[in-house]
């Protein structure tokens, strides 16, 4: 499969890394157009994909992704319109800020379009991507899009009205978890643990706790109850977190983004 991608920044670069790491997409089958700052050129030196500045080269692709900053999505779609409308190459935008309906206003109701929100773990093929397909998308186009995301981790189809909250939870969430892991490690360093070991232990503990929840299907409260013995040390730590409003701070982080 030949994949074309506009933008190789944080998200575009993460997707490119994931496809190459999957070993199902050769770097030579990835065509990238970047912007003025040269981010794509720097990444190309590391990963060896194809670079172009010609929009017309994207006519040869099986699928096209738009991973540019939100204000550029519709202008680039306008550039592509004349080139791809007869070939109906599926186009997927990964911007939270542009809906399928807005894309359809340029490409028409029957063009194979989708809006997807991936997250940065796509670069290690452990992404969690939400997707909204255009209503009239045909089976072949849908399968092509699904195949490309299956290489990057999990894909869930969601309704248009849930894309915002999906993006906040799955797309912004990794930063919250990063802050949490950094804080856990700081606490360990404060108590004498070596910094590198503290990050390693915190990260493994977070990923294995998440896997335990996913694999057992248990409620997170039940898993927490399993660690907190009566009068024990863990419940003292949980109490200290609650005293500082840990749950409220977390809920409010999601809510603040949704209200912004
Ligand atoms: N970051 C995330 O976790 C995340 C999650 C979900 C969705 N998204 C979405 O992904 C999109 C990109 O976000 P980002 O965080 O990756 O931003 P970013 O790091 O700033 O990357 C934007 C990329 O677009 C390139 N670009 C600029 N103008 C271009 C043009 N005219 N043609 C082709 N490429 C051009 C830039 O190239 P130069 O640097 O060379 O100028 C850069 O590589 C946004 O729409 C965002 O909403 C991001």
UniProtKB/TrEMBL annotation:
Keywords: Amino-acid biosynthesis, Cytoplasm, NADP, Oxidoreductase, Proline biosynthesis. InterPro entries: 6-PGluconate_DH-like_C_sf, NAD(P)-bd_dom_sf, P5C_Rdtase_cat_N, P5CR-like_CS, P5CR_dimer, Pyrroline-COOH_reductase. Its EC number is 1.5.1.2. The keyword Amino-acid biosynthesis applies. The keyword Cytoplasm applies. It is found in: Cytoplasm. Residues 2-96 form the Pyrroline-5-carboxylate reductase catalytic N-terminal domain. Residues 160-258 form the Pyrroline-5-carboxylate reductase dimerisation domain. Gene3D superfamilies: NAD(P)-binding Rossmann-like Domain, ProC C-terminal domain-like. One of its GO terms (biological process) is L-proline biosynthetic process. It is an enzyme of class 1 (oxidoreductase). One of its GO terms (molecular function) is pyrroline-5-carboxylate reductase activity. Pathway: Amino-acid biosynthesis; L-proline biosynthesis; L-proline from L-glutamate 5-semialdehyde: step 1/1. It catalyses: L-proline + NADP(+) = (S)-1-pyrroline-5-carboxylate + NADPH + 2 H(+); L-proline + NAD(+) = (S)-1-pyrroline-5-carboxylate + NADH + 2 H(+). One of its GO terms (cellular component) is cytoplasm. Belongs to the pyrroline-5-carboxylate reductase family. Catalyzes the reduction of 1-pyrroline-5-carboxylate (PCA) to L-proline. This is Pyrroline-5-carboxylate reductase. It comes from Vagococcus carniphilus. The lineage of its organism: Bacteria, Bacillati, Bacillota, Bacilli, Lactobacillales.
């Amino acid at each position: 499969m030949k994949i074309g991608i506009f933008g190789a920044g944080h998200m575009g670069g993460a997707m490119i890394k994931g496809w190459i790491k999957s070993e199902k997409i050769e770097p030579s089958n990835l065509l990238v157009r970047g912007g003025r700052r040269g981010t794509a050129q720097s990444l190309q030196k590391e990963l060896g994909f194809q670079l172009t500045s010609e929009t017309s080269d994207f006519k040869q692709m099986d699928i096209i992704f738009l991973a540019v900053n939100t204000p550029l999505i519709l202008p680039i779609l306008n550039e592509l319109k004349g080139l791809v409308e007869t070939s109906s190459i599926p186009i997927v935008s990964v911007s939270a800020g542009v809906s399928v309906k807005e894309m359809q206003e340029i490409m028409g109701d029957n063009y194979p379009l989708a809006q997807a929100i991936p997250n940065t773990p796509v670069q290690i093929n452990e992404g969690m991507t939400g997707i909204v397909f255009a209503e009239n998308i045909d089976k072949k186009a849908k399968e092509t899009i699904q195949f490309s995301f299956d290489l990057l981790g999990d894909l869930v189809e969601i309704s248009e009205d849930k894309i915002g909250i999906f993006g906040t939870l799955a797309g912004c969430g990794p930063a919250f978890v990063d802050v949490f892991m950094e804080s856990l490690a700081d606490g360990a360093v404060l108590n004498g643990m070596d910094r590198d070991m503290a990050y390693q232990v915190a990260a493994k503990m977070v990923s294995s706790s998440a896997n335990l929840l996913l694999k057992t299907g248990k409620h997170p409260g039940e898993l927490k109850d399993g660690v907190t013995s009566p009068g024990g040390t863990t419940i003292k730590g949980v109490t200290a977190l609650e005293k500082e409003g840990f749950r409220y701070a977390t809920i409010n982080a999601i809510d603040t983004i949704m209200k912004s």
